[in-house]
Amino acid sequence: MKSIYNHHHVVHAATHEFFRGKLVPAFETPARADYVLKALQASNLGEILPPTDHGLAPIARVHGEAYLRFLQGAYAEWRALGGEGDAFPAVWPVKGLRNDVEPKSFAARMGLYSMDSGTPLTAGSWDAAYWGAQACLDGLDIVLRGERSAYVLTRPPGHHAGADFFGGYCFVNNAAVAAQAALDSGLKRVAILDVDFHHGNGTQAIFYDRADVFYASIHGDPMTEYPFFLGHADETGAGEGVGFNANYPLPAGAPNADWFACLDAALARLRDYAPELLIVSLGVDTYEDDPISHFHLQPPDFERMGQVLAAFGAPTLFLQEGGYATEAIGHNVVAVLRGFQEA
Ligand code: OKP
Ligand code: ZN
Asked: Where are the membrane-spanning stretches (predicted)?
């Protein structure tokens, strides 16, 4: 299995994030990708290639023009105002406030275009996210050219980013960009299976009223887990998208057997959909020792996940999402890919 490695990820290096009212060391660090790269290199799974430039257009198929303009210039604006270090939002247009007018104030626009204060916007956020999306488009090309699978090693992750906002460590929704590009290249039905511990609210929202992308996710119950405000089982799609969204929330601490039962259920739905391409939002924060998540998968479970996904039988594009037990991420990711490859 070929991999694309977004080596530009290093320029997105947050020092701290807000957690329980304090600044704590960031969880989403460059070291995460370093460990995966090391494990990939040691695995001999296949060639590891750099990303190539497909331009802004495929990103603009998913994200709003005003949001992208904001994101590209945000850090420079923050610095021009005297901001030091990373930028954080502090005010949001919640229910009852206007979100249809873009204020001039930078602080106001930070809130307009974000969903939480837990996502540091750094000097390199845009470049890292831009090249992450490019890497995903390269991975897509590999699969569209007929290979059975490809893996994209990138950060920051993407699945919380909506059409018009960043959050949950995410800025550009890589899975959505890849799915839309697949459709634009002529495919009719794309499935996204999100196995990250957290619900991919951005991906769901982007395709919620559409039948050409089926979004399915297994995740910590939003009643207690981030992103809290989306990811319930009764969210089944809207308009033409009714029946093309499937959520499998599980309580924190759920037994692994329940997780695999959800995987079977999700894949049964996707089998009926008969997608021409399966995109896997591959977060490995379902790992038992993940510091911010609450499932209990172990290395052999990750290998089994890969085997089950291989048995599904669709061309498969794996995109890296979360996973914060830094030193274990590489091993867990490679376990999934090896399970898939050897099945
Ligand atoms: C991104 B992905 C922990 C607070 C949690 C948001 C978590 C985003 C996870 N200090 N903040 O889905 O892995
Ligand atoms: Zn996650």
From this structure: none
The C-alpha angle with vertex 147 and arms to 156 and 200, in degrees rounded to 5, equals 30
Q: Can you state the angle between helices 125-144 and 174-184, rounded to 10 degrees? A: 40
By three-state DSSP, how is residue 121 classified?
strand
**Hey, whose CA ends up nearest to atom 8 of ligand 1?**
168
Domains along the chain with CATH numbers: 2-53+123-342 (3.40.800.20)
Q: Write out pLDDT tens, residues 81-94.
A: 999 999 999 999 99
Please check whether residue 245 is in contact with residue 239, taking contact to mean a CB–CB distance below 8 angstroms: no
The pair of three-digit structure tokens given for residue 191, joined into one six-digit string: 């499935």
The residue whose CA has the least distance to atom 3 of ligand 1 is 292
Q: Which ligand is nearest to the CA of 201?
A: 1
Query: CA angle, 306 as apex, 32 and 202 as ends, to 5°?
Result: 60
Tokens of residue 51, six digits? 């990303």
Please report the ipTM that was assigned to this predicted complex.
0.97
Six token digits for residue 179: 């799915």
The encoded tokens of residue 182 equal 């697949």
